[in-house]
Amino acid sequence: MGDSRVTRRWVLVGAGTAVLLGAAAVTLPATASADPEDLRTRILAGLPPHVGYAESTGRLGLPEIAALEQVTALFTSVTRLRTRYAGPEAWRVDELTPAGERDTYRLGGREYVWDFGANQLTVVSGETPVRLPRAADLVPSELARRLTSLTRADPVSALPARRVAGFDAAGLRITPADPDTTVGRIDVWCDPASALPLRVEVAARGADQALLFTEFREVSLSTPEITVPTAPPGAGEVTAEAADLAGALRQLDAAPPPPRLAGRDLVPLAGGLPGVGVYGAGVSGFVLVPASRGIADRVIDGAPAAGGTVVDVPVGRAAILTTPLLSVAARGGIRRGGVLVAGTVAPAVLDQALRELPGRRP
């Protein structure tokens, strides 16, 4: 779902509940098989139409980050998803919550967001090359597409088959080769006939148990009808540019990102957000996000209590929060305030990036 260019920039990956992770990891008898390289190629070629219900959870343990509360909340609880997928430009994903639901549609080159709690429909125009994660990214088929795109050159091997959502699913394992990434394996199970991804697991390097997984509980290979949503009587309706919805990624007065950090070149982004930079490729890349001094200071001040470490930098102050899969760093007192840096990379990479950031605005 969405432009394939965006998949390389999707960096923040999160947490959840260990109880459900363990309960859902029971393998049922299955005999499906498929060549893993061929299966990956078919996933990358495109997803088949489907309708289903999925749940995503994990146990990464990322603490809440100032100005990114909605993102960290999304990845630190069970996410329940209802999806209808007719094609890359015709889909709908509903995030189901105790308070209602938040529905995201894509149709005719536009996106629409219906927020039941806010009683508001937002019509979104345009796109940005970088955005924050959303619930729709955790649908098994979409997450598999994104992760296989990020790791298309990495080694792949076969996994034992398993039963998922009533399907006899064939499995593949991708093992990222870059020693700087914290991602140890990406396991995907698919319907071998259609190559529809049904379950995805992501584990940290050296870990046996997955820290993030998502799977369909029910799914059918049918083509849904996707229609443009309309606001019900009494509801609000607004139109917004995608850049205006970038939230914490949008700092109009941010300084340009450095051309190189931690041995990685800045990735060119067409129509990028001010100050935002992507460095490196695949699951060994990281993103630089401008932040206000208050946000950076709150992350740095809260780092020790969250198990983070203070980093000695030439100007200002800095800290790193680490989990087995994701590292997040902050530096304050620079570049008109501060920055956040995050990625599925070793803490040493972000440590180096923090130290290399210029101490003042160019």
UniProtKB/TrEMBL annotation:
<protein>
    <recommendedName>
        <fullName>Outer membrane lipoprotein-sorting protein</fullName>
    </recommendedName>
</protein>
<dbReference type="InterPro" id="IPR006311">
    <property type="entry name" value="TAT_signal"/>
</dbReference>
